[in-house]
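User: Before I run my own analysis I want an independent prediction to cross-check against. Here's the chain; please return only the structure tokens and, at the end, one sentence I can use as a sanity check.
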Amino acid sequence: MVAGEASGDLLASLLLDGLRQRWPDATSMGIGGERMQERGFEAWWQSERLAVHGYSWEVLARVAELLGIRKKLRQRLIAHPPSVFVGVDAPDFNLGLETKLREAGVKTVHFVCPSIWAWRADRIEKIRRAADHVLCIFPFEPELLAQHGIEATYVGHPLAQVIPLHPDRAAARGRLGLPEEGLVLALLPGSRRSEVRYIASGFFKAAALVQKALPATKIVVPAVPSLYEEVKRIAAEAGMADKVLIVKGQSHDVLAACDCTLIASGTATLEAALYKRPMVISYSMHPWSWRLMKRKQLQPWVGLPNILCGDFVVPELLQDAASPEALAQAALCWLRASQDSPATIEALVERFTALHHELRRDTAELAAHAIEKIIASPAA
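Assistant: Structure tokens:
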């Protein structure tokens, strides 16, 4: 298995739960993170080694390292073929690797269909060459892939199974040491170092403006443990060191506890939606990367909750639009609505609850069953 960054580590760990139930003695190895290793995964490299941000110089600066890792991994797996290779997300790394492994006779499964419906339609041919089977986390994806001759199975989104339909806000606040009453704003500036570098400062400055308007508001930041000191440093530079609670991990507790979140576009936005929380989606990157990304965009939305709902159910403030003032104003709209307009919040909760039901399947079991069929099938 290869899982890139924190979100891939989480998805892969849930998949490993299903595989272990079906094959208790199975061994798994490759590239993974802490959650995977807790389930007995042997990590030859850590997931965070694959974390890159953007489409240009950020990637080019590390291309030799990434290509070197991929070559060593490919050689090792071809020399000692596994029963199946599962690439978890990280398509820029995994699709090329899967193609070479498949050509060498290794059966390949790609878990999480690349967002060909949102950003990268050009990837469809790469997927066809790379994967014997694709495990899809959104219900419309298998039909789309079938139109291009790619076998796929909808397995639901694993997070929809893990996150409760009715989150316990009071319990989450208790675990974080927050008062049960009062407004809480969560800041989630991303899980990659480069994301935090581009996004966190604006979030902290926006939080300062929110506290100026609503002084009693508590600010909480769940930092990836490896980036904890970096987040603390950026908070201090923004003059917020003693005005925010920064915790290591605990992103789910933070989302359950908050009334609103400023959040970087990515998997975390879907987690926020499953926790039924109002949010302001934002993203910033190097200007060159932004220009390249904009040309690839196929839909008017960037955030997963908006894409899945087919509407701007929550605001998106991207790149130049993501000023601290604009972020603060959008967050204040949600925070004030939670006090003065409960019907507005309830309408959003109903929308996200319907989405939760749509995505909730026994992902681990469905994925394990699909992988079992691939293992049992004749080689291509």
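Sanity check: The mean pLDDT is 90.
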